[in-house]
Amino acid sequence: MTLWEIDVYPAKGQPDLLGRNALSAARDFPFGHALRLQAAQGYLLQGGVNEQRIRAILNDLLVDAVVENAVIAPTGDPALVRPPGDFPFLVHVLPKPGVMDPVAQSALQVIQSRGEAVDAVRTMRKYWIGGIDEQQLRLLCGKVLANDSIEQVIVGPLLLRQLESASPSKFTRIVVPIRGLDDAQLMELSRTGQLYLTLVEMRTIQQHFRQLDRDPTDIELESIAQTWSEHCSHKTLAGRIAYRDENGERTFQNMLKETIFAATHTLRQRMLENDWCVSVFKDNAGIVRFDENFNVVFKVETHNHPSAIEPYGGANTGIGGVIRDPLGTGLGAKPVCNTDVFCFAPPDTPSEDLPPGTLHPRRIMKGVVAGVRDYGNRMGIPTVNGAIYFDPRYLGNPLVYCGNVGIIPRDKSFKKAQAGDWIVAIGGRTGRDGIHGATFSSAELTSESESISGGAVQIGNAIMEKMVLDVLLAARDRGLFSAVTDCGAGGFSSAVGEMGEEIGAEVWLNNAPLKYEGLSYAEIWISEAQERMVLSVPPESWPEFHALCAAEDVEATILGRFVPTGRLKLLYEGQEVGDLSMEFLHGGRPPVVRDAVYQPPTVEPLRDAGGGPAADGMNSLADALPKILASLNVASKEWVIRQYDHEVQAGSVIKPLVGVQNDGPSDAAVIRPILNSQRGLVIACGMNPRYGDFDPYHMAASAIDEAIRNCIAVGADPGRIAILDNFCWGHTDRPETLGSLVRAALACHDIAIAYGTPFISGKDSLNNEFSYLDNGQKRTIAIPATLLISALGQVDDIRKCVTMDIKRAGNPLYVVGSTYDELGGSHYALVRGLSGGQVPRVRTETARRTFECLHRAMHSGSVRSCHDASEGGLAVAVAEMCFAGGLGAELQLEKADYQPGESSNYRAVALLYSESNSRFVVEVDAERQTEFEAAMAGVAAKCVGRVTAAPELKIDLPVSGYDFCWDLASLKEAWQAPLRW
Amino acid sequence: MATPRVLILRAPGTNCDQETAFAFQRSGAEAEILHVNRLLEAPRRLGDFQIVCVPGGFSYGDDLAAGRILASHIRRKLADELREFKAAGKLILGICNGFQVLIKSGVLLADDAQGMPATLTMNESGKYEDRWVNLIADGSKCVFLEGISALTLPLAHAEGKFVARSDAILQSLDAAGQLVLRYTRSDGQPGNDVPYPQNPNGSQANVAGICDPSGRVFGLMPHPERYMDRTQHPRWTRGEGHDPGDGLRIFENAVRYLR
């Protein structure tokens, strides 16, 4: 048995891309500029193979002789430590044992299929380093080259002689004595067992087992903890809440049900036989009608805490996880597009400002983008929409929202597991990875999180999931199963528990295929290993189902059976290790009762940093435009977007980047999911955490308005838009924090009803705070209250869609909607360092009419381009339209509808930069102006100027005494430069 | 003559199979998507088809480099059948990952004494990119490009940089007229100087696609199946793009050749 090391270097003249990435990441650190580095991709192959066989494997599979060279020797051989230049240090980075290594897995599989005597493979990266000292090397390894939550670093020669292999675990049934514990001991158990349950919950469990006259086993406790976790049961928002604000007190029995679900219920009642909602807030994703044959499903999830610790793996498994939601909805939907929204701290945060235990935000952003890219692209699902939001408060706790849309035949939209069906697991094997993910995501992050919950961090294997997708849809079409769900948080425990809730289930845990030996029965049950689905397969379909999976190399295993007992019975090697009543598991959790309070802030006038009134002069107004365009939230995200395949499946209609140079920011994406139909889907989002600092009600209302108007701007039918909510909040144990969330939920209810736009699914992630010790003091950074609204619109005919880039000199430009003095939370205030002001509100009645009129005008074809006004207001909207279209504009903005406030005159600044909702800038076909105006009768739509051929943006405000002219090339450069990495 | 039958070869991780089948169907062919395991079990099934297409995606995850594992399977198990297939005057098309597979399996360019004469490797930019490119085509040699001199198509890949093992090999491929598809400048200026991102990956001689000496085996990095209709063009709302799209013409050429 030999452990062979193969180091693959770029051939002469070929770039060292691995090294280049490391150098670029190191530039955020002071030693980065002196650093010299050369890298190699390495493989460790273990087995009884001689050098000749190794060379054959190498030439066939591991090295491309046209562009690469390899050094090959048994580990420890001097040839492997001969530096390729003047490099005093050598560093190896290897995945920790047990961490998913898809490349090694593929390599091993194909090498073994050739009959070669190789029994283990591990990949690694090898770095030769110079220009820095030993102390800096340590920093480089920890902060740049490796992530010690998943990787190990070996400095100097690699002396490993053998790859670790796991040994089988000895079966012992573990009983946890709980009946005699006092409150302190119960809480100690909750903490040390990583159950993250409250005292009341622990007491309820204790009481339950006292009644049964026995103590629980470890697996029973784990099952209850998973099922009752915030992540799985949403106990806070679906719990009892006593809420108080300026309008008085209100008690909710189930807050979500009485606000967001209630709005959808009201709308469905109103629509009667025209109800196009199919399944809402029930299945893994919401379902609405698409056309006569298909429904469409949509789900957005968050994967915040894993992404904080290991951005690549966190985002990777985030997108992987949310794809399994539509796949596990009804009898399985075909994923047709992804959407991804991230929140990070500014990437230029100085490295010395990072609290202990955090990664640099630039590294987080690069890792997250790469994680989404590698998984989404490999799945063959276009990533068509997204947003990135920056705020320093996301430093220790970034947010990663991943969404997926799927289509499903109408008659496959519902499922029901049947008693007598086999419980079948397909896809990836079960390993120790992701243990305690569900309970961990419900806890607060601390600088210690990484060491406590390392197991919660995973790397995905997209190809496994693609293989699962392929067989699942084929099996669906052949009618081979009666229900399916994804293995997400809580693993088999949640999947089987949910599917069997109304039946009962018996599970034979030792049947689960394992990645390696040594897992206990409880670990098998709660592992969150990726790329697994659980199905309910009738015994008569099993042979065909199994054969189908085998034909495509997908492992399918009978894990147990649904039995009509109302009990969850868990066995390992024939011995009972758990026996819980489904009733207690799903209905036994004591209701969470929380107080929530909201104190509306008083509206202060806009003030500068010194507290004086904000002075808006000619220069500050002129300078603000390039500054807003260069602000991170507004700046071009092309660097990110281009790394995503947004065209696979060939359904792309409106791409994320549009315009004469394919680089303007589209309002929403449009895809055609069925290639021989002209019917389209529109995907958009809305979010503005800055408004939440003023009033979460208006933040939520504005986010909904933004998501909807983005859909309208490309041509979506306002009567067919469905939305999703994703609440990411801080600690809702604090009544004020929970109060702000309730406040936002109330807005969701009100606006959804007023717009006739139903919520069809949602998700919350609470406890998004980061704590660390600063000279012995505990410090906490709470994220700003962040509500993402994702919208799914529809268009009858994609050929009528509109983009935001202006099209032709001479066409008139209109401002649709009314402008108010709403600069609170605006990007104008941000770049000028102003505080106070009125946060934008939503006037639902006029907005709804505006959307309908504009849609009519678009449908008739008089609109040539349209862009919604959001961050940065009308000035930013027009500037973006101009540089996207490669044309200029001349505007008299004072012709736009303006509704002044009471106290002071903000006319000029408001018309330029106010972020009032429900507004658009519209370019109208010069020959069809009358037609457009007729369509817009009754709503504010004012012609304010025209498109010009000159490369400049001119805005006159004669009443206010201003006259601006910006050079468009400079504006575009300001917009593109900040994130052009 | 009968409707040509196309085999769309699918492996784990292939993800452009359905739209590629759609493009062939729309061009008048019958397309069947077949898992590579079925073909490895029964290579003679190739005889039922007149066109083999290896579509885009990430076969076997591209885990050991793009297309390499599928290419290795083909080398070991399908090489003879594919040689016969070619000799029978039939067509082979590789798109994106399919191009990577064809070049690494020796189906497009036969190995010489030192191995593969050319390869597709990591983009010069070091990253995956999705963008539209302008291309010039030499339709005189390659069946798939007949009558086509210029194209606009989207591409999306991380490993599309064409590299020949030596300048001599590059020159001989050029002289043989096999470098049939090349990135070109968006301003329409002629010449070999095509800067990034118009040459999106740093390919030598701006190569985007090549054919074998017969002109009946063709591999290209861009995705012709993503430009069948006007509404797939990135600037269709500006009046650009047309029906049928540039990409569809490649499939139509293949079908017409066999009719």
In a few lines, what is going on in this structure?
The complex is a heterodimer of chains A (981) and B (259). Chain A is α+β, with helices and mostly antiparallel strands and 981 residues long.
Structure overview:
By secondary structure, chain A is an alpha+beta fold. Chain A contains 30 helices and 42 strands. Helices cover 33% and strands 26% of the residues of chain A. In chain A, strands 17-19-15-20-18-21-22 form a seven-stranded mixed beta sheet. A seven-stranded mixed beta sheet of chain A has the order 36-39-34-40-37-41-42, with helices on both faces. In chain A, strands 3-1-2-5-4-6 form a six-stranded antiparallel beta sheet. Chain A starts with a strand and ends in a 5-residue tail after the last helix. Helix content of chain B is 25%, strand content 22%. In chain B, strand 1, helix 1 and strand 2 form a beta-alpha-beta unit. Chain B is globular and about 50 Å long.
